[in-house]
Amino acid sequence: MSNPGPQSPIASPATRAFAGRKGVDIDALAAEIGRESIAREDVERKLSGDSPAPAPTGTHTRYWDVDHAEYGPVSEEPLSRFAQVAAGNMAAAQALIPAVTHHDRADMTAVETFRKSMKTEAAERGIRLTALCFHVKALARALTAFPRFNASLSPDTKTLILKHYVHIGIAVDTPHGLTVPVIRNADRKGLWHIAREIAELAANAQARKIRPDDMGGASMTISNLGGIGGIGFTPIVNPPELAILGITRTETVPVWNGEAFEPTEMVPLDLSYDHRVINGADAARFLAHYARLLADPRRMLV
User: Fold this and answer.
1) pLDDT tens-digit profile of 245-255?
2) 0.70 exceeded by the pTM?
3) 275 catalytic residue (yes or no)
4) What gap in Å lies between CA 19 and CA 9, rounded to an integer?
């Protein structure tokens, strides 16, 4: 697919592919609503007959237009078109979705023990069996057990679309912006297959070789900051998904076993969800189930 010309509206490859399949002219849509960037949600609103959200206006934006050079030296760094698309999508999600974040932890001791036991085989296969592979597998199982999380809300908010597939998005931090390639049918794939696919998608994202077919349609996204650090954060729901799972660094902490404290490898989990569909009790049950899968990997490997 050729890149859009300099006067074309900003839209991700996945959004352009979706619009093309649905017969929506991206250029005409941008002109209709007076926007320089178009998201998938704009195309869906057009298809449903709703008026797409117009470009944000109002007196509040006047106060953001500041000549910062009045206060000291500055320099400018233009945002890439890719980054502009991502910024527009996140701003819309934050403005339109009443999101709540539920925090929990999971015992990773058994997962780490299993990973170490498979180190030789992983080397022979030429695959890194990372903790993220287990998170993908556990999330696929949890989405199967809690179908309401594996759904999307229609643009008019009147219908819940339940998905009979499990696709997991993996947020990848790249020099040119955040990319979310998708592992298709993760519930039907083994750990080795998932590990290889994660490595391939991440490498392609870094090299800007991700195809439109590799993006979009996720049941839920994982945002993994474990390799960097942190004890928790509040990820933004990636619409039209209903939830997103944030993961930070696993730490060895004292956990009471009923008789004494013992060192335990625990990973912080942060589940942001759309409160229009998911309530707090369901979110707590979902994350508790997810944590149980990680605490005993046999539950997700059988």
Assistant:
1) 999 999 999 99
2) yes
3) yes
4) 13
